[in-house]
Each structure stands twice: as C-alpha cells, then as structure tokens.
Protein 1
Amino acid sequence: MIDYDIAICGAGPAGMALAALLVNRGADAARIVLVDAKPLEHAMQDPRTLALSYGSRQILEQVGAWPIHATAIHDIHVSRRGQFGRSMITRDEHRLPALGYVTRYGAIVEALGAVCNRLGIGALRPVRVSGSDEAADSVALHLESEGQAARLLRAAVVVQAEGGLFGEQVDKAETRDYRQTAIIAQVNTSAPVAHRAYERFTNEGPLALLPQDDGYSLVWCARPASAQALLALDDAAFLTKLGETFGERLGKFTHATRRLAFPLGLNAGVTGSARSVAIGNAAQTLHPVAGQGLNLGLRDAAELARVLARGATPQALEQFAAQRRQDRKLTVRLTDTMARIFANESALQPLLGLGLAAIDVAAPARAVLAELMMYGRR
C-alpha cells in the first residue's frame, strides 16, 4: 500500500512552498506529506536573513504566503573597493514596487506553515529519514523519531528538499571549495540609505549589506584566515575594520550583533532516480554572491508543482528535469564564475571597475542582469 502520492523531505521554504503550490494546482492535500527533523516552532525562531527576488514574491503570493515581514529593496549599488566604476540597478527601470525583499528565514516558514495548515497538508515533525528503498511503484522511507519505534512510509514520489550547509553534504557531480568563509551579522550605520542594498567587491570576496528593518544584514566573504581574525576582534575593532573595507557611503558603523560564520562552496548536480528528485539547496548549494540560492529553490518548487499536479510519476520527474535544466545551469554558471573571479584575486578583478561602468551606461545590459536575478532563465 502506498501511503502518499508525494512525500517531501524537508519542510523549509522550498519544501512547504512545493506542498502549497501542489494543492493550489488541484492536488489532494491528503495525499501529500511533509517530513522534517525540526518542529515548526523551532524553525520559526531561525534568525537567518534571506534575500527574496521579486519573482519569489510572486510565487509566495500564489499560495497566500504574502505579505510577510520584510524590507523592500528599491536599489542595488554594485562597486569595486578602491577602483573606478560602479553600477546602480533601480526598481523604477523595471516599473516594479521592489527589486527584492530582505526577511528572516523564520518569517517565511511561519507564513508557509500557516498556509500548509490551512490547506490540510500533513506534517511529520520532528521525524528523521534514516534511509530509503526504491521499488518499481514507490519509495519506502525509513522514519525515526525520539521515543517511537522505527516505521516505514511509502510514497509514489519522494522530493528531497533539505540541503544543509556546504561541507556537510555528500559531494554531487560538481563541487568546488572557494576557500572562503562568510561572516554574517546585523549592523547599524550613522547614515543609512533606505531600501538600498550594496554589493562591494574586495580583494578577498564580496561584502553585501542588505537593508533590513532599521539596519543592514551583513554578508562579508573573506579567506578563512582573515575570517577567523575578524571573528576574534571585539565589536569596536570589528566595526572599524568593516568601515575601512566598505567605505563611508553609509557613514560610520555603529553597532553589530553576534557574528556567525560558515564555509562557502559549490555543490550541484542532477540527483535523484526514477521516483525521487531534489530541489533547492538539496540540488544545488551556491555561493551567496548573487543571492540566488533560495530563489532558485522556489523556482524549482513552482515547476515541480506544475508537473506533479498532473500525476506523481517518473515521467513527471523527467519533464521537471528537462524544464529546469537551462535555468539551473545558467544560474550555477553565473554564480560560480562570479565567485571564482572575486574569491581568489583573479587576474580579471582589475577589469571589474570598467565592466561595472559599462553596465551602468548600457540599459539593455542592466535589464538582462536584473531579469536573471529576479526571475531566472525563462
């Protein structure tokens, strides 16, 4: 007996968005189940910052998971530290209310969790998938939870939507260690510019400041040794170093929260089988330089919902792979190229200022770049 048509392993933003989109397209909620190792209440407390493109907002709107608490990005300022040339992308050029939004991971899962509950989509939490066995007509998942006996769940199709961090994953077809560490924190400045995001390229990697509430979400990419030195500084010394690296466009940096760090790399490739498929971070873990990780995952979810709503079959998964190939490939290539140029003091770095200046005066080039960032390859 098959318990469900579709089992989604990982009830994060991509997994829950997929479940809601499936029901929105006519799938039976009772035939869908979410499996996750964390209680929803725990996930809702996750303070991590995420960047949503305008295209991702449209996906969330489809299922009623918008609006959420988020800060709109009206402009994106891109520059190279110590060199001539910069580019500015604005919402007015594209006649949109925003280019994107900055929000917390917890805010997204709270909104999507409420939608899934309202739609009657079942969730097994906290439950861990310890293994799987695939047969001709279904996949059996081995489930474990504290205080309960191990059990089996059978589904016609299994979707892996839980990716984890780079360095903790099984290597896929394409993997690359950028030898960079990302430092993240919330910071405040003395002269903030409302709704403007900054991407500042340095010798060791990109430094991004994303407007969030009354301050900024910082993502500072540096070589591991430099990152460890930055983590060891007290708050005052850290803010001084940040100001020296970023410049004075926002005045002085006045406050920083506790700093966290994680390694950066690429781990991507087609994974799955006749009756299983991976989406989002489980399919492709990317460098944050272009802010495309979650957005690519939500585009995966939207296309997978479209094909699976017609039937949970191997043919549907084949169609999904074909339809997503170009967008995935282009986004991975673009992100990887940017990361390699900006992570290792590439010989191409001195040309970045000229490139940014050229993009700034060429409206068609800015339009193409913005379209890719907001909607992917369509």
Protein 2
Amino acid sequence: MRIGIMGLGRIGAFHTETLAGLDAVDSLVVTDPVAATVAAVTERFGATAADSPEALLAAGVDGVVIAAATDAHPELILAAVKAGIPVFCEKPVARGVEESLEVLRAVEGSGVEVHIGYNRRFDAGFTAARRAVVSGELGALHTVRSTTLDPAPPPAAYVAASGGIFRDCSVHDFDIVRWVTGREVVEVYATGGNRGAEYIRAAGDVDTASALLTLDDGTIAAISNSRHNARGHDVRLELHGMKDSIAVGLEDRLPLRSVEPDTGFPAGVPHTFFMDRFADAYRAELTAFTEVVAGTRTSPCTVADAVEASRIADACTLSLHEHRPVRLEEVRA
C-alpha cells in the first residue's frame, strides 16, 4: 500500500522510518513546509515528495499519517476524510475539546476510519495489564497509579503552544487509564508546581503535576507527571485489585534507583526518551493502522476516545487553576 505522511518533524520522521520498514507498505509520499527536511527524507527512504497536503491527498495514497503541529490536525483530518482516505493522526485531535468535538461530528457517519495515536495501547506491558483486568484475575480494582516523567522539558516554543502539561503529557495517562480499566472518569482534582525551567512558569504552565481521578465505579486513579526526571524517561502503571496487584514498567531499564541493601534492581541502562521506551509499541501501532487501511480492522483508538482524554485534560487544567474538584460534566461533552 501507498502511505502519505504529513509533517516530518521529530515524530513524523520517526514514523516515516517505521513505515518504511513495514512489509505492508510499498511506497511513501511525504510533505512538510521545510524543503530541506523533505529532501533528506526522500533521499533516505526513496519517498515521493508532495509540495502540499492537497497534492499528497491527490497522489494516490491509500492511507495518511498526520504528524504535523497540533493546530493543523483538524483541517488535515477533515481533508483526508473528505477525500475518503483512512487517517492516522498523532494525538491530540485538536487543541481543545470544543474543536475536537467539531471534528468528531464531521467524521461520524463518514464511513472513513480515523485512528488517533495513543501508542501505549500497543505496548506489551499495557496490553497485558488490560487482559488482566478484563479476565477478572485482579478482582475489583480499588487503586490505579499512572506515571509519566520526562527526563527534560520540551523547548519553550513547544510549551507555549502545547496547551499545558495535562493536555500534552498527562493525556497519555488519562487515555491508558480509561483503556486498561474500561471505566470512565467522573471527577478530577489536580495540582501542580514549578521547580525547574522558568519558561514553563512564564507560559502559565507547571512542570510537575498530579491529579486524582475518580472513576465511575469508585476506583481512584492517581496520576503523576513531571518535565524533570534526571534519571530518564519513566512510564509506569500500577493496578491494585481485591485479588491481586500488577505493574507495567517494572523492568531492568526503569529509570529509578533502589537504595535497599543487597538489591540489584533495576540492573539495566535507564530509558532516556519516549521513542526508546516505546519503539516496539510505535511499530505495532502503525502496523495496526495498515490493517485499518486494508479494511481488516476498525480504528483501535477513535476520535471519540481522544475526545474523552481531552475532556479529562481540560477538567484537570480547570481544577489546577481554580483549586477545586471538577466534575467531568462541567467540561462540554
């Protein structure tokens, strides 16, 4: 099949390399505003260059991967859907819930599959955790803990346009909590602080945040995030049930140092970047998209799923600024 890629920045270039190595993909068409980036990618992967998203959509592609800036996501998704071409778009659908809902209404009933990129759904540990919940082996859950700690903050320009830590970082935790537990969030309480990069405070954001989520069955989910984790990229999930407790991410590359005597865990080199931590998950995610394009499966992460994660992020942002619990119905559904 012939796949188009819109946007060749850090994640777009990474997706291009992954797609180029998939057996199901015969050829690639790429576009990006930076001509030098396009030239480098076409030379490395033998891709065809398109001078605009419109030209890419007209180039006979079977599916489209959108890895452009967030502000461009709604327009590009709708253009591909209008052309009848299946879409994979990196999260989020849009900057906020309102615009995400507009996209959802526009694609509903179109018959065109839209797959939003939440890569943790394709990680072996997280999928095993979901199976454990679905099978009932943990019993009724009472506590969930989800952690995402980045080794260093993103650039100032990214922070200024990201919408805040809950919308660009914690949203992964929100999505995976929903997916693994199969439950919906009904209330949040969020807090945050600034102990590092001054430009994050200047943007009206926090560099470290926590949120308590109450799920619709009474389970409590504790979310922990930071832009500053000197030891590496730390992503974990704990599930505590009435019968058993399990964890995702407790492996030898965990970027956490034990000070217990006679303990050699973890023994490996810590993960330092999300592309390192989730390389296999990204490959599985894009393989799934080729199956969506082939028509052998439906979208494993829909626009509606992404809207729910965005609603939780918006509720947490409101809670942070107003210092109070926020019910999800306060954020437009």
Protein 3
Amino acid sequence: MQTIVEEHISQKAIEADASVIAAPDISVFLPVFNEEPNLRPLHEKLDRALEQLGRTAEIIYVDDGSSDGSLDVLREIATEDSRVRVLALRRNYGQTPAMSAGIDAARGRVLIPMDADLQNDPADIKRLLDKLDEGYEVVSGWRKNRKDPLFTRKIPSMMANWLISKIGGVPLHDYGCSLKAYRRESLADVHLYGEMHRFIPIYASWSGARVAEIPVEHHARTMGKSKYGLSRTIKVVFDLMTIKFMASYQTKPLYIFGYAGLLTFLVSFLCAVFAFLMKFANWPHHADFIQTPLPVLTMVLLVLGVQFFFMGLLAEMLVRTYHESQAKPVYAVRERIGFGSSV
C-alpha cells in the first residue's frame, strides 16, 4: 500500500514538473468580438512577431460571444497552429470579463494582452519585453500617434487618462491601450469587475509592481466596426470612483464614512443653532420652530449622521472578514532575504 501511495505521489510530482516545463515564456491573449475579417491577417502578423523572439509562446483567443464567423475562423487557426488555444464564451460579456478569462487561461511567465482589430502592432511585443527585462513588472503601451477621430476618441481619452493618472497615482499617457506586458506575479491578486481592465497597472502598482510606459504603433481600423463609443466615458467615471475608494479606504472604510458622518453632524448642529437663534434671539428675524424647516432638517441630518457611522462600522467588519477568512495579508513582500528555502 505504501508503495502505491509513493508511486502516486511521484507521478503527481512528475506531472507538476511537466506542467512547469510546459509553461511557455509568453502568453498572448486577445479578446475577440465580431472581428472575422481581421483574424487571419492578425494571426499572420502575430506569428511573424513571435517567431522573431526566440521564446516559447502561446496564443489565446477569447471569443466574447461573436455573432459573425469569428469563432469558425478561430477554430481553423487552432487546428493549423499548435500554439493557439481558443476560449469561446457563452455570450457577449464585455472586454473586461474576456480579459479576465484570458488571464485565467494563460500559463506563460509573461502575459501580453492586445486587441484583435489590427490596430495594435504585434511587432511591438519585442519592445515591451525588452523594457520588461530592465526590471519592470508592468510595461504599458502608449499610442502616441493615435489613428482615431479627434473629438470623439482622442480628446475624451486625453481627459480620462489625465484624471485616472491623478486619482490612481500611476502617471500613464494611455490607460486605454490594450497592448501591455505583465509578469505573471504582478497579476496574482488582480480580480477584474465592471470596465476595470484598463486599471490593471494601478492594481499592480498597489502590490508594489514597477510600472513603465513606452510608445507603440497604432494603426487605423480598416476592417470591421469599432465597439467603443462615448458611452464608455461614463462607465470610466463610475469605475474611477471605485478606484479612488479602494486606493484610499479599502482597508479603513470607517474613515470615509466617519468623515461623512461628522460633516452631517456639523450641518445638523448649525441648523439647530440657527433655529434657536431665530426663535429666541430674533436673528436674523423671528420664526417659530414650525415656521422654518430647520428643526426637521436638524433631525434628518442627525439620523443620517448616525447611519453613516454604522455603515462605516459594518464596512470595517466586512473588510476584516474578507482579509481574515481568506488569510489575505494587507501588505505585499517584494523579496525575502535570509529566510531560508522553507519560507
């Protein structure tokens, strides 16, 4: 019996070693939604770019519920190229879930997302990797000479990037550029929701990752239809509110709720003072309590302030439950020196 157990353990160890050995150097993953005419020329460019790197690579296409023939083309490409894997999502979930699916499926030591519309240039992958080798964990592409409409895309993008840089604390010119390079460990604790794939460099920076940015090529769309519009700007604003909250108050939510409660109490107190001055000191004029809304406003704000404090306490309990139930630390270690191999 012991021999059987030992053989089973040995076999599992061999399989684990084999999976490590089989892990490619690079995982390129591309969300795809109705890009049928672009897929063949894109894969040819990507194939040429990866062949020149001299590194092992895999290509993951994530079909995000395409309604054209994209999935059929991807099936054909997968049969022709052993490096290709295809994830077909059940419906159109959006770019962020598709990116998350690509991250989860990737096995490489370096993860490189990019768009499937031929506007990103696969030849820039080498430059991203070269910059990554300088000691960075994240390298972001910057579409410096962007080939998009000025008023509907460029100007809103410039404003959004400036705002994101100020709030997130990571100054980048182009958060919307999908072409980036990540070391796998920098994405270990990244979980994506909403439209937050563009904020991955901020998440990585919170974990201590060093972030760099380099200019990359950007080509005008020649085939297919753009899926972006001004409506995404509104979503970015909402996501920025979440980013700001997480950046400043993720582990101490009582601070923001407490400040809101104190401000509400202050306004409630001022309303009460004015109500008493108007009734008993005739300043600025005489008014009984029933002749002014100030007493009602005082009570409403008082109750609201109490609610803010209790909401903060509940949020504190949730944060502690989240970290303690999953044994999640509130810090990240970059390097361990002198701890020995057992740590």
Protein 4
Amino acid sequence: MTDTTDVTGATAPRRSPLHDEHVALGATLTPFAGWEMPLRYTGDLAEHLAVRTAAGLFDLSHMGEIEVDGPQAAAALDYALVGNLTALAVGRARYTMICDEHGGVIDDLVVYRLADERYMIVANASNVGVVVPALLERFAGFDVTLTDASLTTALIAVQGPAAEAIVVSVTEPRDVGAVTALRYYASTNATVSEIPALVARTGYTGEDGFELFVPAELAPALWRDLLLAGAPSGMIAAGLSARDSLRLEAGMPLYGNELDRTTTPYDAGLGRVVRLDKARPDGTPVDFVGRDALAARHGSEPARVLVGLQGLGRRAARHGYPVVGGTADGAPEVGHVTSGAPSPTLGYPVAMAYVTPEVSGVGTELAVDVRGRREPVRVVALPFYRRPDKA
C-alpha cells in the first residue's frame, strides 16, 4: 500500500495492495475514507445479482485491523467497548461498538478472539484514526499491547451461495474440515492458495460468505487464485456500490448514515450489543466508557426509531431526504432517510430512516420528499431481504 504526497503537498489516497488487480480488471476507482477503492467493475446490477445468486469477490483492505495482546486484553476491551469480550470464546467473533461517554457511537466494530490473550478488532476505514487513539487512552493502566496492523493486512471477502465451495477449492486439504465447520461469526487459521490466512465466516451482504485476512504482500496472488476458482460458479469481482446495496437490503447499518456520535445503540435498534450486565467472576459490575449514559437510556422510549421503508412508487429515497407524515400538503416532517436505493433483488425502492416513535409501527403509511415530490412509502420490518435458507 502507498500513501503518497503530490507536488502541492496534499496527501493522495492510499492504495490497496490489490490496486493493480483492480486496474487490470477495468475497475472504476473512487476515493473512499482516505483510500482509492473500486466502485464497480462490470456494473452495479450485475455485481449485486452475482452475490445473491453465485458469489462476489470484494477487496476490503481499506478496513482497519487492530491487534490487542496481553494478560489483561479481555478486561481492557470490556472497559473500552460496550460488549462483553471476556465471555467471547476463542475462535469466535462479536459485533460491538465503541461509544463516547454520552453513549454516542464512535464506531461499530467486529472483534475476533484469536487466543486467550489475543484479539483483533476490525474498524471502519474512516474511523481507524479515531478508534486507535481512543483505545490507547482507555487501555491506560491495563497490561495490554495495541498494534495497528491495518497497513500490513489485506482483507478479501467471498460472499454468496457459492462462497464455501469456492474457498474450499483453494484451501489446503488438511484445513478444509475446519473451514466448512465454521459457524457464522467464527474464524480459523487455514492455508488458502498456499497463503496463511485467518478465515472468518463473516460478511456485510446478507449472504453466506467468508472474509480472509492475509499479509498485504501476498494478497494479489490470493485474489487471482480466487477469481480463477470462482469463475465456473459465476463469481465476479464486486465493488463498493454493490456492497452498499447488498448491505442495505440486509438492513445492516453503515457508519456515517445509520450510526454516528449523535446516535446511541438503542436509537439504532441495536441495544442488544450493550452489555450492562458485564461482571467480574466475583460478581462485581464492570464499568465501561459510556455505561452511565447508556444505562440511563435503557428501557426508555427513544426520541427516534430506525425503521425500514418500502417505496410504493418508482423513485428511490436517498440519504438525507425528509420523511413526512403522508402525501397530503401540510403533512409534518417526522424524520429523515439515512440510506436508500432501488433494490435489485426485490424490484422496488427501499430505505432506512429515523422517524419519531408514533409513526414507526410496521404498516404505517408515510412519504419521502424526493426533490420536492412526495413519494409514498410504507414502514416495514428490517431486514428487507433474508437469504432463502434463513428466511
């Protein structure tokens, strides 16, 4: 990966270790969270549908990988994050958050427990520069070491119904059983295309799939081998645009849209990740940053609720569009759209939005102001899409 400076002194976006692979595939590249990443290759619709019907290959090397080691690693993470990481078993992963003292979300994270005293945190690319200093501050006084491995680690994802068969086809035979036995949100070390990898059954698309963490310098060879192995199954490379439409259909939040420092986990309907009951073996409650503020919010009705909206017309709602109480003139504004797009899988527009509690019930008819025109929508349960074996 490179981080260059142009003649004006401005810092250019970092490049993925797979940059040359993307160029060779004709990808449209775009700045994203300080990186230059592939937006699309063949086309948004084709890439989206490939993931739903076969598989897609994603470069996620812009994500941050933060390693936490030491005899007090679990205790340090219990204090720093809202989840109970002491209770996480070795080989499992957990979705959690780091919040500020007011309960606002600094970032949503996935934490992998790799050994008794070793964890890896995966943070959003746009927040690595905030999460690392926050963790270092919170780890003060704990016997723990933090290493930011973001620039030495590449992350490649294979997502879709054919993902397991594709990954297994390039996995060392002695490791195949461990890979196929992985449950959702579990990981194992395996040799894939003769490359040592942490293979995790995780993803951000609503499909079965795997995320492979490998040394950055070895990533191009793995990428090429996976593309070749997946071609007979219909797998193609997929970019950020397809990843966003897939996660939206799956009702998964995006930091900066559904989550930010003005949002608590309870606002986003994710209060389950907050473990107010964390306790030491002797029963003493475990304090963590933001606990008092979150405890005060627990059980109370939030001022706004995150809901799914099904578009009843043809025009899609987009981030920031106002939600109003109906199509009639004078209907009051009741919220705003956080994410929205046409759904390639379902065939109609979908959106997520924060609305006031009294209009958040499933079946409620509302409208979205789409550039001055009120488009009818209906509140529906999230997620919009569940893969057939989970429906």
